[in-house]
Amino acid sequence: MKISKNEPILKAPSAIMFLIGLMVIIHITFTKILPPELGVSLFLKMAFVPADFSQGHKLWTLVSSAFLHASWEHLLMNMVWLLAFGSAVAKRMGKAKIYLLFFLICCVIAIQVQFFFSQESSIPIIGASGGVAAMLGAAARFAFSGDILASSNRRTRLLPL
Q: Is CB count within 10 Å lower at the N or C end of the chain?
């Protein structure tokens, strides 16, 4: 099999590359560009704190917390899994704007589930792990739409995403 020299190594959808780029830029800004005291202060203002949210404060953190990561390792793991599972979902959805909206909705739902279990906690919650886990679920929703086993006469059809 001959490999084309013009074939890209990675064919990730533009929405996925946008999210990865945005999260890397945000992490670089917080870790390398901003002065440490300003970075920590802004980081804590953007993180989701259940006790603050239960009092009606910092509603924007439902979204902003998904773009913050505790370390390069945390960011890398989230982005690898976003690339793996989010790409399949983004390709299935087609339009980047629809996918980005879906991802944000998934992040908000994930943080609300966390809030349900820790309403009085004052520990900041950050990361896109909830949204990435939702991409795994969404990808699994349509992964086996044909024959599960080649020898099986049973066909399993999943509903559209």
A: N
Rounded distance, CA 56 to CA 54, Å? 5
And the tokens for 24? 């890397």
DSSP 72: H
Predicted confidence (pLDDT) per residue in 17-55, tens digit = 999 999 999 999 999 999 999 999 999 999 999 999 999
Q: How far apart are CA 39 and CA 2, in angstroms?
A: 49
- Distance from C-alpha of 122 to C-alpha of 16, rounded to nearest angstrom: 32
Q: Are 96 and 14 in contact (CB under 8 A)?
A: yes
CA-atom Rg of the chain in angstroms: 19
Is residue 53 within 8 A of residue 61, CB to CB? The reply is yes
Report the amino acid identity of residue 79: M
CA pair distance 62, 105, nearest whole angstrom: 10
CB 103 within 8 A of CB 23: no
pTM: 0.83
